[in-house]
Amino acid sequence: MAEPRSILVIQLRRIGDVILTTPAAAALKKRFPNAAIDFLVEPPGAEALQGNPHLREIVVYDASGVVSTLAWLKKIRARRYDWVIDFLGNPRSAMLTASSGAAVKAGPAHVAHRWAYNTPLTQSLTTHYAGLEKIRVLETLGVPGAGADFVPRIYIAKRAAPRNVIGLVPASRKDTRRWPASHYALLGRLLRERLDCELRVFWGPGERALAEGIARSIGEGASATPETKTLAEAARLMADCRLIVTNCNGPKHLAVALGVPTVTVHGASDPASWNPPHPRHVVVRRGELPCIGCASNSCPTKIECLNELPAERVLEAALKLLESPAGALT
Description:
Blueprint: E1 6-10, H1 15-31, E2 36-41, H2 43-46, E3 57-60, H3 66-78, E4 83-86, H4 91-98, E5 104-108, E6 119-121, H5 130-136, E7 165-169, H6 181-195, E8 198-201, H7 208-218, E9 222-224, H8 231-239, E10 243-247, H9 250-258, E11 262-265, H10 271-274, E12 281-284, H11 304-307, H12 311-323
Parallel strand pairs: 1-2, 1-4, 2-3, 4-5, 5-6, 7-8, 7-10, 8-9, 10-11, 11-12
Helix pairs in contact: 1-5, 1-9, 6-7, 6-12
């Protein structure tokens, strides 16, 4: 297989998934330092790639409708990439890959439209953190996975000396990944009593009422974050924090990429996939339940994995992390 001069990485959507693809881009650049690497992404995720030193260009995909989709197919083909690597693997990204004219058209081997790829990327038989798994699937292309740096990074906010601020990220799109707001409020009060810290409750579109309600329940020293217009603004607020307590959600990956220590509450989601195996990032879950990590979006048992997970248990994990070298305030 000839070494590539130009590579297109495709991960169109979800900011968290885009962030989790940054280690793969770095691994490609390390393996092929002379190759120009571009990243095809939709507008919201493009912000997470700003300033990334491993990329030549962030190609912002904005097609809507048949005509603009056809125009994009022609545009990608005209760029004459040697390799196209599709990490998303949905029908649209597969079509872009198939029509690229690249010598290597790589994509996930398990999807129905795998016909689009001449180089299938096979998932590992055992579960790995998503940032590492995206590198491991590239072993077919000569990119080593063993010993690779799998921690995602963004370059839109510098991590200065953190303040005595604890961030809470209580939202999630799925009920089976959402620790109750009342538990977050109690945790906030306990953290304030123990650490005399400021509590900052983060929120995104449609989540303001949730954040403000939790801040009111915590009381003095707590506030919902101001509205942010860009990912960079949100990142700067998060970079101030000495710790983030969060559900399994997109902002958690932003915190990891910023180097902020995290405590993540897991219910239906599998921490082996979504939490980096690193001492700065710890997990709290009811591992004693036989159904834990069920990956379901609905629950017949009233989501006991989250609703009956006490705030004191999360507090213990947070304090332990903050007292360790990995989470110490510097």
